[in-house]
From TrEMBL:
Keywords: Cytochrome c-type biogenesis, Membrane, Transmembrane, Transmembrane helix. GO terms for cellular component: plasma membrane. Residues 62-81 are annotated as: Disordered. This is C-type cytochrome biogenesis protein CcsB. Signal peptide: none annotated. Coiled coil: none annotated. InterPro entries: Cyt_c_assembly (IPR002541), Cyt_c_biogenesis_CcsA (IPR017562), Cyt_c_biogenesis_CcsA/CcmC (IPR045062). Residues 123-325 form the Cytochrome c assembly protein domain. One of its GO terms (molecular function) is heme binding. Its main location: membrane. GO terms for biological process: cytochrome complex assembly. It is a multi-pass membrane protein.
Amino acid sequence: MIHPALAPYANLAVYTAMGLFTVTLICFALYLAARTRPLGAAIVAEARTPVSVSGSHHLAAADSHVETPEQSPPAAAACDPRDSRHARQIAAVAVNLTYLGAACLLAAVVLRGITVMRPPNGNMYEFTIAASAAAATVYAALARRRHWEWLGAFVTGLILAALMAAVLLFYTGAAQLLPALQSYWLGIHVTIAICAVGFFTIAFPLSLLQLAQRRRQTHPTMAGHRLLAVVPDAETLERAAYGMNIVGFILWTFTLITGAIWAQEAWGAYWQWDPKEVWTFIVWIVFAAHLHGRATAGWQSRRATYIALAGYLAVVANFTLVNLSSTFAGMHNYSGM
């Protein structure tokens, strides 16, 4: 049974989330801009400001102890590792908007589920909305606790891009599923996959930033690294990405297991070499290689990071190319996923 009257409200929640994440992306960008402001001129201006107005000799004394930007050491031209009051205010607004955006996406998922009276993950549109909600919820839970405001622009950018793809490319009206998909395994199997993609999505920009930060640390004289001055060091980024990928890998393992059980129940066999099954296993293999390489002594962390990035790209390919290309036509095609 479908409740079509609720469908517009579910769509409205998605559009509201898109608007909120657009503003959130701008706020996070302004936050990074506020943190990446050079300190050289600010330090001189602050030092030149007299403490009192008792006489001009105070200003002269301050000037005598202040280095000019040309004389100051390189550290003075770097970015302040601490947030200014202005930057903290922008970050607070951005994080609160992230909470609102995540809440709107969760509301969209719930409303869509009530509309179709089933788990709202039966097609590419619903999967994209739910995966975006998972990524937004994971980031919102970590942003203020771990002070990950510096990651916000990258995460919200990915979420906004996914929502635009969902609305413009994958939209499917509220409808019942084919009988083959009307199983409680749909809610279990696909929901676990959605949660896994949420964690992988957070790990992806962390891995990219780690590579950039490691290059910055290796070549400190290279220009164009002002943004990376506000990002944690490469080792911290690598540990954070590794933690996200571990959780995602565990969830993806259960995705494989539950998918095999559902396949046996629906098709009479645990494995059919269906393109969707094969690509899901490829994703599992790639992330397994990443975790193994990261734990193996002698492996360069950069090499393991490249494998993790390849794993996320395999996730994207599994969702887009395998679903949309006739080259990968298989037993999953009727599901739209």
